[in-house]
Amino acid sequence: MENDTVRTGTTGTGREVAAADTGRDFIRDIVQSDLEAGRVQSVVTRFPPEPNGFLHLGHAKSICLNFGVAQDFGGRCHLRFDDTNPVKEEQAFIDAIQRDVHWLGFDWGMHLHHASDYFEQLYEWAEHLIGTGKAYVDDTPPEAMRAQRGTLTEPGQNSPFRTRSIDENLDLFRRMRAGEFPNGARVLRAKIDMASGNMNLRDPVLYRILHATHPRTGDAWCIYPTYDFAHGQSDAIEGITHSVCTLEFEDHRPLYDWFIENLPVPSRPHQYEFARLNLTYTVLSKRHLTRLVREGHVSGWDDPRMPTLAGIRRRGVPAAALREFVRRVGVARAYSVVDVAMLDSAVRDTLNPVAERRMAVLRPLKLIIENYPEGQTEKLTAMNHPDNPDAGSREITFGRELYVEQEDFMENPPKKFFRLSPGREVRLRWGYFVTCREIVKDTNGTVVALRCTYDPASKGGNSPDGRKVQATLHWVAAADAVQAEVRLYSHLFNRPDPGADGDALDDLNPQSLDVLTGCLVEPALQCARIGEAVQFERNGYFAADPDTRPDRLVFNRTVGLRDTWAKVQARP
Ligand code: ATP
Ligand code: MG
Asked: Which residues contact 568 (CB under 8 A, 6 or more apart)?
């Protein structure tokens, strides 16, 4: 496993590795001690995506953690859509998220929830805060409100509307709900402390006016709760015991607790934070991913170069590989950036024992076996997996005309090149020993074919007399090879920290997609199942793309056999 490093900040390095190895982490430690001390009877977690984009690798970490904790401790995990911003949210995203969580191997059972299920209750609680003098309607225009908020070093100023009477606040809030005011005219704010050192406690906004149709509640509402007002209360309604989120929300925790403190909620959830997943050569922010799609830099949310679960699945990565990757990364509070090569390793380690082997030639070079009778072919047996006889075998065709990779031949080979060159004998996998006798070139001097001979006594690729060959090549037979398009992917970004010096999209790798047409593959690959990776021997893992049609095979490279990126980068 090359490049399997978790790069971390100055704290917590040892801890993260230990956590990944044992399958334990500080969140599980907290849950365990809460259960042992009887602070909770049974653990209830939730995964709360906002349906404003597709799920990505970062979400996979959160899903595996939340659902994994519930599984490990016999509790349950809810899927809750945080659908409080109808302007950005779409049904298509809701559907994709459910599909992706299921694909990753988790099930919420009866517990599919939406923040919008609680709009009426949240509204009542907003009135409750008004009634207890802890919330007020503010007419301050947005810009002035921003100015009054102060800065990290200066306290904010009280809004002139902060002293409105309870009755006036109730009246205005009800009229906000009734649709009397345009977008942005007024907001409802909590009355906490404009001088607080925590900006989140400087009278945060609880409701804003948004005349927008909601995917679920339609036009029933024209005021919508903010994330902060919806989240903890939704947790409380659902009986969530451990509300696990990423560290950006650490500063929101006092506000989370303030609502729970000041509202008649049915349970008292607690928020815990962990470090979000960051990956080299990758962006994991929906803002950027949305731009990649909208601006056409990729073919869609499921483009195989995207770090979305849909893209990764399309590339042929099995869900088990993602779960294994997340397990290896572990859960910690320390900031870290994970080498994307670690994902590739998890994919290889997951696919290697299970992926069936096939032969496919990406850049074909013709071999003519001169001592093989014209018009004749024969069947040979190829094992589907070298370490697993239960995977069975298949028949492949051998004949006078074959194809090998162009890169497996060199006219003037350097010392360590053991593959085909004039006079050199090699083994064709599951086939015969062949020797290169003559090079055929076109008028430009390009090599177009090799004339070879084969040793009939070496059937199956076995040496007839103990003589050794130094290379085994994959190949296909002209008689039944099938044309295919193969899409090779590399990193979407050309620097490990896209965006570090400006706009991340300026760091796009213009060579992230390489489409090879005219590849030749063995006929068994016509039955390849979409999205299920097989190993093209010596070339890597590949999966049929959904663009495949009966007359047009299309394969995506899931991952190469080893990490070649570092070497490519090192080239002068
Ligand atoms: P983004 O920053 O990509 O827009 P988000 O946090 O806005 O992500 P949500 O749909 O709100 O996206 O996220 C749902 C859950 O997934 C949240 O609990 C969030 O903390 C978690 N999550 C999002 N990104 C990551 C990440 N990179 N690593 C771990 N967890 C993440
Ligand atoms: Mg979010």
From this structure: none
